């Protein structure tokens, strides 16, 4: 869950791009494609619930604009208490953090219910892009191109790209490349896997192609990025 307290930008979740600003809460279930812009004036908190947690959470992504001051204050207090317990060395601090995490799940559930009347049903284009991002999340490591994914979805690559541009102002190949590079960033940061093997595992046909694609998106080579950590 992302909770923004200052600044603004754009976030893409499951192939749909929307603007975010202060007092926006965005919940992203595990395995859902996402990416967002973070400028120098953006502040907030990211909470990673983990795959094996016992907290009841929404099944679908949520973008909530929290207008009530009381609800804004409530989530700020819960997040502060989670951080305080995580930083603490007092007895049972881990269990206390878990209970506060449960309260955060309750807060999120209530905000989803309150926002339900404002949520418009997805149109055909959004439904297709959602299916595309779900397929992409499962198979982006296999080296499949947009044409092959479009075939699996039963549409033409042109129609798929048109729908992607309609929902998030980006092409299908841009979304696919974003997901591959996002995973490359994670692997470079969190593992010791050789750069060449990372590129190969993400479906890049050659180390040169991987380096070029990575540099086009990040401004640095994969090796330079890892050295900067």
Can you summarize this structure?
The protein is of the alpha+beta class and 229 residues long. Helix content is 53%, strand content 13%.
In helices, the fraction of residues equals 40-55%
Structural class: alpha+beta
The biggest sheet, with number of strands, parallel, antiparallel or mixed sense and barrel status, is: 4 strands, antiparallel
Mean pLDDT: 91
Largest sheet: spatial strand order: 6-1-4-7
Number of separate helices: 9
Q: Could you name the ranges where pLDDT drops below 50 across 5 or more consecutive residues?
A: none
Radius of gyration: 19 Å
Strand runs, count = 7
Per DSSP, what share of the residues sits in E-state strands of 2 or more residues? 5-15%
Shape: globular
Question: What's the end-to-end separation, in Å?
Answer: 25 Å
Written as H for each helix and E for each strand, in order along the chain, the element string is EEEEEEEHHHHHHHHH
Structure description:
There is one protein chain. By secondary structure, the chain is of the alpha+beta class. Strand 2 and strand 3 form a beta hairpin. It has helices at 69-87, 93-115, 124-139, 146-153, 157-168, 172-190, 195-201, 207-218, 222-227; strands at residues 2-6, 9-13, 16-20, 24-27, 34-36, 43-46, 62-65. A four-stranded antiparallel sheet has the order 6-1-4-7, covered by helices on one side. Strands 3-2-5 form a three-stranded antiparallel sheet. The protein is built from nine helices and seven strands. It starts with a strand and ends with a helix. Helix 1 (69-87) packs antiparallel against helix 2 and helix 3 crosses helix 5 (157-168). The relative contact order is 0.11.
């Amino acid at each position: 869950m992302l909770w923004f307290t200052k600044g603004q930008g754009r976030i893409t979740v499951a192939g749909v791009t929307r603007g975010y600003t202060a007092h926006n809460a965005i919940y992203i279930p595990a395995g859902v494609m996402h990416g967002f812009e973070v400028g120098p004036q953006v502040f907030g908190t990211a909470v990673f619930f983990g795959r094996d947690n016992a907290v009841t959470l929404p099944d679908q992504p949520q973008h909530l604009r929290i207008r009530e001051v009381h609800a804004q204050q409530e989530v700020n207090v819960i997040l502060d208490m989670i951080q305080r317990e995580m930083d603490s060395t007092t007895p049972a601090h881990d269990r206390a953090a878990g209970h506060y995490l449960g309260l955060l799940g309750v807060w999120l559930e209530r905000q989803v219910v309150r926002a339900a009347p404002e949520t418009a049903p997805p149109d055909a284009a959004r439904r297709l892009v959602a299916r595309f991002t779900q397929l992409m999340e499962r198979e982006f490591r296999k080296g499949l191109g947009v044409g092959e994914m479009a075939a699996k979805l039963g549409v033409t690559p042109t129609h798929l790209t048109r729908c992607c541009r309609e929902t998030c102002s980006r092409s299908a190949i841009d979304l696919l490349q974003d997901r591959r590079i996002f995973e490359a960033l994670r692997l470079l940061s969190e593992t010791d896997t050789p750069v060449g093997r990372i590129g190969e595992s993400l479906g890049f046909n050659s180390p040169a192609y991987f380096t070029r694609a990575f540099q086009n998106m990040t401004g640095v080579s994969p090796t330079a990025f890892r050295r900067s950590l």
